[in-house]
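Reviewers asked in the last cycle whether our approach scales beyond single polypeptides. To address this, we selected a multi-component target totalling 761 residues and predicted its structure end to end. The input consisted of the following lines:
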Amino acid sequence: MKRFILILLSLVTLSSMVFAAGTQETAEKEEGKVFNIYCWNTEFQDRFTDYFEAKGLVPEGVTVNWIITPNADNAYQNKLDEALLAQDSASDDQKVDIFLVEADYALKYVDTPYALDVINDVGLTEDDISGMYQYTKDIMTDSKGNLKGLSWQACPGGFIYRRSIAKDVLGTDVPEEVQAKLNSWDKFNAVAKTAKSKGYYMLSGYDDAFRVFSDNAETPWVDANGKITISDSIENWIEQTKTYTDMGYNNKANLWSAESWAGAAEDGKVLGYFGPGWFIDFCLAPAVLDDPEGPKTMGNGSYGDWGLCKGPQGFSWGGTWICVAEGSDNLELAKSLLYTMTCDEETLVAIAKDMGDFTNNVESMEEVANSDYKNDFLGGQNHISMFLDSATSIDRSTMGPYDQGMTESIQAAFADYFNGTVTKQQAYNNFYTDVMEKYPNLSK
Amino acid sequence: MQEKTLLKKGKLKKRSSVSYSHWGYFFILPFFIIYIIFSLIPLLSTFYYSFFENYRIGLTEVGPNFVGWANYKKVIFETEVPRFAINTFVIWIIGFIPQIMFALLLAVWFTSNRLSLKGQQFFKTVIYMPNLIMASAFAMLFFTLFSDAGPVNQILVSLNFADKPIRFLTQTITTRGLIAIMNFLMWFGNTTLLLMAGIMGIDQSLFDAAYIDGASSSKTFFKVTLPLLKPIFVYTLMTSMIGGIQMFDVPQILTNGKGTPDRTSETLIMYLNNHLTSKNYGMAGALSVLIFIVTAFFGIFVYKTLMKENSIIGGKN
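The resulting structure, written as structure tokens, was:
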């Protein structure tokens, strides 16, 4: 039996070598039959299915192949980099056709030949992209002025608060009135104190306010000489979070952890979360449901018991851009995908109204903001109008290619400080060590 | 007569007995081919690359530039590798001690003729079971069980063992302890089976003789079982040690790759894995070579010291 298994194993190994070598051919001039999309979660996949595939825009005989690798620990970038670097030698069906990039590392791919110019190479027109928020185009413009990717969303963020808790703590749940009581960090801190005295948590954990501070950072993480700099804004986050932790204003939960979402459940005690449009529809809304299969209406968990205001400081968080990979054999399909998902106003309005996502078209968003659109999750609030001002003022000039690594490292290093395991100085040292392991070209 | 001449010419002898021995080489050939391609060449190239500066910034590659021993100097003197080595050792030892003790005890019980336990097959299956679960799944399970709002904390609080949830994964002792417990649970069944095989290989008449001579069971254990079990015992110790040095999946998943708190549960291989972000082949290579040398050193050291005396026992006797 053992021998049989051994023979079988060696046969399998040998045959896989033979077959792997056999698939190198099949070079056709027409569009490829396999459309490979690299991404890190199902957010885009869901939208693709509902707004692109459902319209019958995927040609007959083309298989859409999703290669999904989580973002954390650089896993997605490692996978994508391998694929891109092997793009020349890969067979047509194996080549990357579309890859998605996130704000935290978009710049790593913009100035490379691996992403195609959406105007000159893919074939969209200036007119197609004219309605987009300028910052989404600025980020993806390389040093030669070519536009390397497009997004269907703009990501202004706000403070998403629990209406019932706000009523208890602030005496009101009307967005404008809540905003008036939270429009500066001093007021925010004062409310945190009141919330604590009534048995609530102002924030869920350490990293919840991080993006508000990091997005408002005055300097990029890495300067022109490769030196790591920690901006004052990040220092403020450290100070504030330490105070919040020591005073018990937060629930000490890690971002994305089960504890953090539990704070948003029906019996949760967290007053609010900072987040942009995608955070509301893709993260928070599914997490608060008592019955995930049940109707998304008021009464299912804390669904509908939420409201949105700008909060103490405007910020933006994340954003996903679609890039067409150099060497793709599905350029026509890629063009149609980019057009439908990021330029077509009808689709963008539909995504905003169905999903609550803030989509990337100035006019469409104004149209939705002035319509009678109501977001059920946010208790009937038209949150698009709330985001409108912030969206036009987003400035991402301090963005850099190392942001994801920096964010993960600083959050991890300072979690120990907030927990009281290490001193502040040790936390800084751990942060520097960690970052320089990841990026050996940087210095302290 | 004719036969004799043929024999002289050496023709008949060759035909009379066909040698099949060379076929053996063909049967083991696939292993060696695969070993050379997937193990030996990568191993040697690790040595080679450890002398180069070679990593990626974004999608551009730096190097390979020959830098001599610079990577080794950096690993030894400029990083916290010694600290991670100590972490690895501490976590391994607190898992290994209960593991070997439980395994020895169970192995002796299961093999004892005098006890002749019922339902042995059942228990052997059950204790081996944790090893069948993927380490990452096991770590994920523990992560959920011992999280701040997890079931373990809920039980502790509701039974008044703790007045507020214990934050297991933010303290050094509990984090290391959890990793050690997981390694213990996963491997004690395997060790038990190995030791049982070792004990069953000991001549039963020796136990009978000891029994007739009036030796107590503890005396039999220390004077008969243990000395005769030594070769298997050393084997277990060495495989566990090598496995310990390579500890990765459990702490990686449990601490989300960060070795929290304050990197006190960061193992050597977790540190090695950090170099993956920038594909830092040079540094990772140097570290791997050092781990290889340390592992080899410990292996030889343990083998030599424990197998020094009474070498007859390990032999044909």
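Chain A touches chain B through 38 residues (CB under 8 Å). We regard this as preliminary and will revisit it once experimental data from Aim 1 are available.
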